């Protein structure tokens, strides 16, 4: 099993109209995006090339919206334990920077898979 390209824990995952978890995990690994519960059960996953994600203008700085297998999820990336491809933790930084790292990691992973 390889090291994840991106992993964030303590993520709130919402599939409107209800919250699925307030402390889940978002992971990009081996060309797939996975949304996991706090217990590690898979909520949804898809190849990174099939995932659409962004930060809408109306969202808070620590939020992103991702469409996985046709289902739209709101992700709230809190200030808890985070790692990026370089292995640095995001402790002490704001969720907006973590959201930016998530979107950049997804774009990098999708670029590697498509070309």
Q: Any overview of this molecule?
A:
The protein has 115 residues and is an alpha+beta fold. It has a single domain, classed as PH-domain like (Roll). The chain is built from one helix and eight strands; from the N terminus they run E-E-E-E-E-E-E-E-H. Strands 1, 2, 3, 4, 5, 6, 7 and 8 form an eight-stranded antiparallel sheet that branches. The radius of gyration is 13 Å and the shape is globular. The model is unreliable at 81-92 (pLDDT under 50).
Separation, N- and C-terminal Cα atoms: 23 Å
Oligomer, anyone?
single chain
Question: How many helix segments?
Answer: 1
Fourth CATH level, the homologous superfamily = Pleckstrin-homology domain (PH domain)/Phosphotyrosine-binding domain (PTB)
State which percent range the strand residues make up.
35-45%
Taken in chain order, the helices and strands follow as: EEEEEEEEH
CATH architecture: Roll
Q: Provide the number of structural domains.
A: 1
Give the class-level CATH name: Mainly Beta
What is the count of β-strands?
A: 8
Helix fraction bin: 10-25%
The CATH topology turns out to be PH-domain like
Shape: globular
Helix and strand content put the structural class at alpha+beta
Overall pLDDT score? 86
In angstroms, what is the radius of gyration?
13 Å
